[in-house]
Amino acid sequence: MNLYILTHRPGVTLESPYDVAYQFIIQATSEESARKLAQEKGGDECFEDKPFWVDSSKTDCQILEIGSEEKVICCDFLAG
């Protein structure tokens, strides 16, 4: 398993800066799995099943480290 960091791509704007996740660090078996976990755990950026974290035109996903089980490590969230 690897650690993935998922962030918003530069220039991507959201309807509101509140109640949204700004980045995740996720341990997963693949980039696809990491993106799906972020999508499931996201905030209003994913409201009504909007594809945000699974959309590579809106978000970046990079490998950080190897791990042993799939889970969300960190979520940077600004509550409003």
Summarize the structure.
With 80 residues, the chain is mainly beta. Helices cover 14% and strands 40% of the residues.
Please supply descriptive tags for the structure shown above:
single chain, globular, mainly beta
Write the layout of secondary structure elements.
Layout: E1 2-8, E2 20-28, H1 31-41, E3 59-66, E4 71-78
Antiparallel strand pairs: 1-2, 1-3, 2-4
Description:
This protein is mostly beta strands and 80 residues long. The protein has one domain. It has a 4-stranded antiparallel β-sheet with strand order 3-1-2-4, covered by helices on one side. The chain contains 1 helix and 4 strands; from the N terminus they run E-E-H-E-E. It starts with a strand and ends with a strand. The chain is 14% helix and 40% strand.
Give the H and E element order. EEHEE
Helical region count? 1
The biggest beta sheet reads: 4 strands, antiparallel
Low-confidence stretches: none
Q: What is the total domain count?
A: 1
Q: Which strand order do you get reading across the main beta sheet?
A: 3-1-2-4
Number of separate strands: 4
Question: Structural class, from helix and strand content?
Answer: mainly beta
What characteristic shape results from the CA principal axes?
Answer: globular
Radius of gyration over all CA atoms, rounded: 12 Å
Helicity, as a percent range: 10-25%
How would you state the average pLDDT, rounded? Answer: 90
Distance between the termini: 34 Å
Q: State which percent range the strand residues make up.
A: 35-45%
